[in-house]
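Researcher: Let's do a round of design. I'm pasting the structure tokens now; please hold your answer until I've finished.
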């Protein structure tokens, strides 16, 4: 009899089906991420430069303009870059960047454009660390590119 009662109880327990979970409550709409205010986009418009806006050479004349243009130099040379100043206001800042082939800036210099000057010039020499390789020189006036020239030093 005990065995019969145990079997009946076991049969009754195993016939019960598990009840399904109650339906979940509706999920609220996902919380929106906080809004961030982006800074205004900066203008990256192309700048047109003239092919003769700057000159690179091995000497300058009395008017401070490069008068012996070259593209190849030796480590013992002094390299000059000049810009005509006529279209710029006196006191405007001109900045030159002499850049080596690996992207390092060899020399950076700023000068104010003097009143009455026809040209403004900058120079790079062995004293500045001139070494063999490919370079470019870029001149900006008032933060705007004026010109860029490539040259080599052997």
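Researcher: That's everything. Go ahead.
Model: Designed sequence:
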């Amino acid at each position: 009899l005990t065995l019969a009662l145990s079997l009946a109880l076991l049969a009754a327990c195993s016939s019960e089906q598990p009840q399904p979970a109650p339906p979940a409550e509706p999920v609220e709409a996902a919380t929106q991420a906080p809004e961030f205010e982006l800074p205004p986009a900066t203008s990256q418009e192309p700048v047109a430069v003239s092919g003769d806006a700057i000159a690179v050479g091995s000497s300058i004349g009395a008017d401070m303009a490069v008068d012996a243009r070259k593209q190849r130099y030796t480590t013992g040379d002094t390299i000059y870059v000049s810009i005509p100043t006529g279209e710029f206001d006196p006191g405007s800042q001109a900045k030159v960047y002499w850049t080596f082939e690996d992207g390092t800036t060899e020399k950076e210099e700023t000068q104010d454009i003097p009143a009455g000057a026809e040209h403004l010039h900058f120079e790079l020499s062995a004293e500045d660390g001139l070494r063999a390789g490919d370079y470019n020189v870029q001149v900006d006036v008032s933060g705007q590119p004026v010109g860029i020239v490539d040259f080599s030093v052997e």
